[in-house]
Amino acid sequence: GQQLNQSPQSMFIQEGEDVSMNCTSSSIFNTWLWYKQDPGEGPVLLIALYKAGELTSNGRLTAQFGITRKDSFLNISASIPSDVGIYFCAGRGDKLIFGTGTRLQVFP
Amino acid sequence: DTAVSQTPKYLVTQMGNDKSIKCEQNLGHDTMYWYKQDSKKFLKIMFSYNNKELIINETVPNRFSPKSPDKAHLNLHINSLELGDSAVYFCASSQLPGPSAYEQYFGPGTRLTVT
To answer: What pLDDT score was predicted for residue A95?
Structure first.
């Protein structure tokens, strides 16, 4: 099945650092979503993007809908230990396709 | 006041058995989904129901049968369980149609282990 490519695959950073991750596709999407999954839990929606070029923030998180509609970016500023988890992008075609995930580890 | 709930949280069973996972949402959404997450954390949609009607049926073995008694419930029944069925199964819901149609809300997952 189709999957979106996320990079990096994993990140190990120090508390306080900023984080950037992205998601790319060979297909155009009309909606991009970003989710976070904590260990043993289901994915939780962080940000939804509906227009090419759109930039949306949710606290320390900022996500952008790429102007080509084939990519999206997520930035986390001033990371804290509770940011640890797996971050998934998801793009909407005729159904929601999930990315391969970026595992984030934050060290105090 | 859990939005999307699943039972059981853990399910350990032997090959060949039949088992069910239940899902309920209290968000008033019209659409519900089942996803499978494998050991590499890849999330893949299996089924989608809108108002009790099947709208997405991915290439899933017909040993898997979803059942939606009403729009707040979507259960997953699995016959003749195989080792490869071991995974975490997530239920999700969203409101279709609408501006936030693809904002899906996930349950906590059911970890199925087939021995």
So the answer is: 79
Give yes or no for residue A42 having a pLDDT over 60. yes
Q: Which residues of A touch B104 (CB under 8 A)?
A: 33, 45, 96
> CA A49, CA A51: separation in Å to the nearest integer?
6
Taking a contact as any Cβ pair under 8 Å apart, which residues of chain B between 56 and 115 contact chain A?
Answer: 56, 58-59, 90, 92, 99-100, 102-109
Low-confidence ranges of chain B (pLDDT < 50): none
- Taking Cα atoms as reference points, which of B31, B2, B28 lies closest to residue B101? B31
Whether A101 sits inside 8 A of B41 (CB atoms) is yes
Q: Under an 8 A CB cutoff, do B44 and A98 touch? A: yes
Q: Which residues have CB under 8 Å from A93's CB, separation 6+?
A: A27, A29, A30
In the chain, the amino acid numbered B82 is: E
